[in-house]
Amino acid sequence: MKALVLNQVEGKTVASIETLESTQLPEGDVRVSVEYSSLNYKDGLAIKGLNKIVQQFPMVPGIDFAGEVVESKSEAYKPGDKVVLTGWGVGERHWGGYAQEARVPEDWLVPLPENMSSLQAMEIGTAGLTAMLSVMALEHAGVMPGGKPVVVSGASGGVGSIAIALLTHLGYEVAAITGRESSHEYLSSLGANMMLSRHEMATDARPLEKVYWAGGIDTVGDKVLAKMLAQTEPFGSVAACGLVGGVGLPTTVMPFILRGVNLLGIDSVMCPAPRRAAAWQRLASDLPATFLDNISQIVSLENMVDLADQILQGQTRGRIVVDPNL
C-alpha cells in the first residue's frame, strides 16, 4: 500500500511517499481500506515537524479518515461496513489516514451515517465534527436563533466555514471574522451576514465592551477570543475549539462574573463515542450535501508537503480532501 510516512533524520522531520505492507500496520481490531482523509491544521504541524505533534517515528500522519472495513476481529464491525474516524491520537501516536489502509481499535470508529458517503465524511472531517460539537454546545448552553448574531473566527478555514453553514441552516444570524478581504464573497455565499476584520478583533480588549453577540465559535484563541468574550451578551456563550492565533487568553474574570458569560471548551479528539455519533448524525441532517461541493478540493498524497505549508500560513480555504488512492 502507498503511504505518506514521516521519519526523523538528524533531528528534522522528513516526509516521503513509501510502499508498505499491511503487516506493518499497528495493532488494532479493525483494518480499514481508506477511501479518503483530509488536511487539518494539526496535520500541517505534523508534516512540518512542529509543536511535537508526532510523538513517535516512523509515523503515517492524517488525523481522520473514512473508508470500508476489510478485516475485523470486532463484533461491532464486519467487512463491507462503512466507517469514519477522527481524533484519538491517530496521526500523532497511532498511524493515521494518509495511507491506503489503516488498522485501529474498534472503539475509535463510528459507523458512517447511511445517507453520507466516505467523500462527504472527509469533506466534513475533523473540522466539521469540531464545528458541529461547537454548535451543539451553544445550543445546550441556550444560545438559540432569533437573537443577536453568533460570531465565528477563522471563518474561511475548515471549522469556520462549516460552522457558518451549520449556523445559517439552523436559522442563526452569523458574523464572520477573517483576515482576508478576498474571502468576503465566499463567506457571504456560506450565509455570513456581517464581515469583521481579524486585525480589528485581535486588538487588546477592555474587560467589558459593548455587547454585540449572543455567542461565538472561536478557532483562533488569544486576543480574538478575549475580544469575543468581552462583547458577548449576558448569559451568552463562546465555544473555544482552536488556537491558531496563540494559546494565551488575555482577559479578566469580569465577563464571567458580571455578565455570566460561559466559555465552552470543545475537544473533538477525545470526545465520548455517544456524543461523537450524535454529532455525525446531526451533520448528516443539518449540513446540505450541495454545500460541501462548493468548499472542497481533492488532492493526492504527493501534494501534502506543499499544502502543509499553505494551511500553516493561512492560505487554504474551505476543506482539502486527501485521496490516498490517486
Write the layout of secondary structure elements.
Elements: E1 2-9, E2 12-19, E3 30-38, H1 41-47, E4 64-72, E5 82-86, E6 101-104, E7 110-111, H2 118-140, E8 150-152, H3 158-169, E9 174-178, H4 184-190, E10 194-197, H5 198-201, E11 213-218, H6 222-230, E12 232-240, H7 254-258, E13 262-265, H8 273-286, H9 289-293, E14 296-299, H10 304-312, E15 319-322
Parallel strand pairs: 8-9, 8-11, 9-10, 11-12, 12-13, 14-15
Antiparallel strand pairs: 1-2, 3-4, 3-6, 3-15, 4-5, 5-7
Helix pairs in contact: 1-10, 2-3, 2-8
Structure description:
With about 325 residues, the chain is of the alpha/beta class. The radius of gyration is 20 Å and the shape is globular. The model has no long low-confidence stretch (mean pLDDT about 95).
Report a brief summary of the structure:
Helix content is 29%, strand content 26%. By secondary structure, the chain is an alpha/beta fold.
Please compute the radius of gyration using only Cα atoms.
20 Å
- Secondary-structure-based class equals alpha/beta
The CATH topology annotation of the largest domain reads as Rossmann fold
At the fourth CATH level, what is the homologous superfamily of the largest domain? Answer: NAD(P)-binding Rossmann-like Domain
If helices are DSSP runs of H or I spanning 4 or more residues, what is the number of helices? 10
How many structural domains are formed by the residues?
A: 2
Helix content: 25-40%
